From TrEMBL:
Its EC number is 3.5.99.6. Keywords: Allosteric enzyme, Carbohydrate metabolism, Hydrolase. NCBIfam families: nagB (TIGR00502), PRK00443.1-4 (NF001684). PANTHER family: GLUCOSAMINE-6-PHOSPHATE ISOMERASE (PTHR11280:SF5). InterPro entries: Glc/Gal-6P_isomerase (IPR006148), Glucosamine6P_isomerase (IPR004547), Glucosamine6P_isomerase_CS (IPR018321), NagB/RpiA_transferase-like (IPR037171). It comes from the Bacteria. The lineage of its organism: Bacteria, Bacillati, Actinomycetota, Actinomycetes, Kitasatosporales. Catalyzes the reversible isomerization-deamination of glucosamine 6-phosphate (GlcN6P) to form fructose 6-phosphate (Fru6P) and ammonium ion. This is Glucosamine-6-phosphate deaminase. It holds the Pfam family Glucosamine_iso.
Amino acid sequence: MEVVIVPDAKAAGELIAEAMAQLLRRKPDALLGVATGSTPLPIYEALAAQVDAGAVDASKARIAQLDEYVGLPTGHPESYRATVLRQVVDPLGLSEAAFMGPDGSAADVQAACEAYDSALVEAGGVDLQLLGIGTDGHIGFNEPCSSLASRTRIKTLTEQTIADNARFFDGDLSQVPRHVITQGIGTILEARHLVLLATGEGKADAVAATVEGPVASVVPASALQLHPHATVVVDEAAASKLKLADYFRHTYANKPEWQGL
């Protein structure tokens, strides 16, 4: 896989945003898979800045959601749908019609999972999927020992994840949903290009296990090794445990043919 080491989160955001912009120039109606959380925010900010400056036309872009809480009412401000609309769809000047995601408030959640998996296929597949990574190597909400062939499905949040997410619910653990819908690893691997962003020393062990360790369900992100076009973008802190860091710097830094990832 391609491993690109950048100085900081801002540089990572600009690099990945340019990759997305180049994709939109080639394919204006590209389906962009997005993730939530604080890590990808520099990407969305940089891409919105390009749109505002007229450097890229995103008017035909489509946005696909990676995961969603189960049980939050429609329109809840902390639902991932509301978050993606607020952080990605609105800043890019898109309408809600450009957005697709699983229905976490459905009466039949399993049917909603299957419907979303099918909808991604019917939409022509995800062109570029953004991913974050947990300190334990999870991607989406595919926790360690998730099947590497898994499809979009219901998952139970770990106690650590519930505690981590409580800050979005005024610190009230009781308000954090216990279940989510997540694209499975098998679903994620069907995207044409996977771009994983990790920043900070706290992600260094997970990044090393993902890139240089064996493919194993105990590190779900290691499944990216099986993908024909996977790019891992990390800052110096997240790259600090990579044995081949110098090789990656030499191979992928300022490479002329390496345009837009």
